[in-house]
Each structure stands twice: as C-alpha cells, then as structure tokens.
C-alpha cells in the first residue's frame, strides 16, 4: 500500500466518525425545536380555550354630579347660658322640668321677693318725703327772691342758704329715684328667666335652698335652633372654597359619623382666619336651622361642603376603582369580552359611587367585582343574580379611596 493511499484512508475514517457524532445531536436538536413549537401552540390554544372569568359589570354614567369637600365636624350650640342668680335669696318655686324646651323670657325659678319688695317700697317712700321737702324749700326760696330787694325781711345769707337747700333736695330726689330703680332691678332678679330659646339641662339646685350670685347656677340652657357645626378641611381646599363663596352661600350637609344617614342641611357661615400649622387644616363654621333637633351639641358628624354641581359628571360604582402602584385604575370591558386596565383620576368617592375626572367615557362597561382573577387581556362574562352575589362575596369588603 502506498503512503498516499494510507493518508486518504485515515482522513476518510475521521470524517465518518465525526458524522457519526454530529448526526444524533442534530436529530436531538431538531426534535427539541419541534417539541418547543408544539408546546407554544398548545399553550396558545389552551389560553384560547380557558373559560371566561365571571365578573359583576357596571356602566359609566353621565349626569348631574355634586362635588363635595368632606371633613369631620363637631356640633356646637349656637348659645349656651348658665342661668345664675344676681341676688341672694331662697328659692320658693321651680317652674321648669329638666330637658324641657323653653323660650326666651320663660320663668324658670322664683326667689323670695319679699325683702326686695320692701326695699323698693322704702325707696319710694324716701323719694316722696324728699319731694315734699323740696316743694317746701322751693316755696321758701321763692318768697326770699321777692323780699330780697328790700333787705327788710330776708338777708342775703338767708337767700343763699334757701337756694342751697333747694339744690340739695333736688339732688336727694334724684338719688331717691336711682335707689328706686335699683330696688326694682333687684326685685326683677327674683324671677330667674331663660335668656334664650333652648333646652334646659340638669337642675343644679333644689327648691327651698339659698341661691347666691357666686353659686354654680340654677341650670344651663342650650340653644339648638339654630345650631352650629365647626369642621376642618385641608388648607389646599381654601382657595377653591373662597372662590365658590363669592358666588353665593355654600350649602353644607351633615351626615352621621358612618356617612350613611343624612341629618340636616345648612349654610356655610365663615372660614376661620387662621390655619392650624400643626395639622395644615382650616376651621369652617356652618349654621343649621335644626328644626327637627337632629343635631345635638357635642355630636361628631360627617360634614359635606357642596362646592359645585357638574352637569355632565361621570360616575361609576365605587367598588370598580382599584389602587395600584401607579395610582387608581379601572378594568374596562371591551366589546370582544376582554378587559383592559385604564388609569383614572378620581374626583371623589363615596360608599356607592365614584366621580371620575379622566380616564373613562360615558357608556363604557367596567368591572365592579371579580377583579382579583383578572389581568389585561382576560376574557370575562358579566353575571347577575345569585352568581353576582357569589362574585361580590368572594371579593369581600374593600377599602374606599379617601
């Protein structure tokens, strides 16, 4: 055998061995690629075949929407008066019952008037006596004035003395009149009356006891018609509130603390003249007629200041609004039954409806309950009745965005 032939044989055997090694690897790679392609197709087919997610759906509505600013309010009596005695005496009568509604001027209690009536009678008698003396002195002075020019019966000294006596008695009569007025005022103080229309509280003293000017008083009368509510808002709302106040009085609604029960309606009276630097809030005061007495002093209420009413405001069920890392969003149902998440700007949100500034259009369908199993592109089916109740129960309570 020739050397060249021997070299060609070795090369041939090397190529044959290499093909033997690469052929199985190629077959394995082809098989793997085919398997991957088939798996992807199967996953896509499976996704297409997944059943739609049951959800509760709602509609974006357009209409008149009131815009409120809300704050915690404290009900404050329009007037609170502690009925006290300005004189000392024994209580001889109590003319009210605790918790009674009284009017201004109504008699609440009577102090024994006899000592003060006697003082008045004495002051009147003193006045009458001094007026009689004054009349006599004026007659004497009148005679002196006629006789003085002749200097026969009346001296200048007598004339001057009688003139001074008249002036002195006139001053005494004026003092008597002042004493009479004081006695009459003290006598009027024996009648303890209500200074305002209001409701009486707990009586502090019983009949038969001695009442003093510096004692704790008879009773507290609280005026509740009208009544005031003082509430706070963030300082960022001040400018908008002041702008709306220039258009006229702003309505204020008072709700129960849970925000579910309307109690009364009134008007904004004033915006306080100082911002609380510690909390960044400002106090506002509203006045309520409170004809039905549904507001009570010391009560905490949910105060709602009506800023404006939008004629074409957009609203959705409050449970539709979700909160994500980038803010509020809503799942919108497309005509083909899939959902997409839309970022929204929420103007305000309550227990039932949310007002939307941007991100939605009137008539669009949104997911109200069932969002926990959704992602963009999910297929959904809207359910009602018992199925809707089950979906809502699965969602559970949801925190309302403030």
What's this model, at a glance?
The chain is α+β, with helices and mostly antiparallel strands. It has 5 helices and 20 strands. It has helices at 3-49, 114-147, 156-188, 238-245, 385-395; strands spanning 53-59, 61-83, 89-94, 101-102, 107-111, 191-193, 198-200, 210-211, 219-234, 251-255, 262-276, 281-288, 300-317, 322-324, 327-333, 339-343, 345-349, 353-358, 365-369, 380-382.
Task: Write up this protein.
By secondary structure, the chain is α+β, with helices and mostly antiparallel strands. It folds into four domains: 38 residues; 96 residues, conserved putative lor/sdh protein from methanococcus maripaludis s2 fold (Beta Barrel); 97 residues, Efflux pump adaptor protein, beta barrel domain (Elongation Factor Tu (Ef-tu), domain 3), CATH 2.40.30.170; 124 residues, Orthogonal Bundle (Helix Hairpins). 33% of the residues lie in helices and 37% in strands. It is built from five helices and 20 strands. Strands 1, 14, 15, 16, 19 and 20 form a six-stranded mixed β-sheet that branches. Helix 2 runs antiparallel to helix 3. The longest helix is centred in the N-terminal third of the chain and has 47 residues. The N terminus and C terminus are likely disordered.
């Amino acid at each position: 055998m020739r050397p060249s032939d021997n070299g060609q044989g070795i090369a041939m055997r090397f190529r044959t061995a290499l093909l033997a090694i690469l052929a199985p690897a190629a077959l394995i790679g082809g098989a793997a690629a085919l398997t991957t392609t088939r798996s992807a197709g199967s996953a896509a087919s499976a996704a297409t075949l997944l059943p739609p997610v049951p959800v509760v759906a709602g509609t974006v509505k357009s209409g008149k929407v009131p815009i409120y600013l809300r704050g915690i309010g404290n009900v404050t009596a329009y007037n609170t008066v502690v009925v006290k005695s300005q004189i000392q005496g024994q209580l001889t009568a109590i003319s009210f019952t605790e918790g009674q509604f009284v009017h201004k001027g109504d008699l609440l209690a009577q102090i024994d008037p006899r000592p003060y009536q006697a003082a008045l009678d004495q002051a009147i008698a003193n006045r009458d006596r001094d007026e009689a003396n004054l009349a006599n002195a004026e007659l004497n002075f009148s005679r002196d004035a006629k006789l003085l020019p002749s200097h026969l019966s009346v001296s200048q000294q007598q004339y001057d003395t009688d003139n001074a006596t008249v002036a002195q008695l006139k001053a005494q009569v004026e003092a008597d009149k002042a004493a009479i007025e004081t006695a009459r005022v003290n006598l009027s103080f024996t009648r303890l009356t209500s200074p305002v229309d209001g409701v009486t509280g707990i009586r502090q003293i019983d009949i038969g006891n001695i009442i003093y000017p510096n004692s704790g008083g008879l009773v507290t009368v609280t005026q509740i018609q009208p009544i005031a509510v003082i509430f706070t808002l963030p300082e960022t709302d001040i400018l908008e509130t002041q702008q709306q106040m220039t258009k006229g009085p702003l309505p204020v609604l008072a709700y129960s603390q849970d925000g579910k029960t309307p109690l009364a309606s009134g008007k904004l009276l004033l915006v306080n003249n100082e911002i609380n630097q510690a909390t960044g809030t400002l106090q506002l005061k509203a006045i309520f007629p409170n004809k039905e007495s549904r507001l009570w002093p010391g009560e905490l209420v949910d105060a709602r200041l009506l800023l404006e009413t939008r004629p074409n405001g957009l609203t959705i069920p409050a449970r539709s609004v979700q909160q994500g890392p980038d803010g509020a969003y809503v799942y919108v149902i497309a005509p083909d039954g899939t959902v997409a998440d839309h970022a929204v700007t929420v103007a305000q949100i309550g227990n039932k409806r949310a007002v939307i500034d941007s991100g939605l259009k009137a008539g669009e369908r949104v997911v109200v309950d069932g969002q926990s199993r959704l992602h963009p592109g999910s297929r959904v089916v809207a359910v009602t009745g018992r199925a809707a109740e089950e979906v809502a129960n699965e969602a559970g309570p949801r925190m309302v965005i403030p």
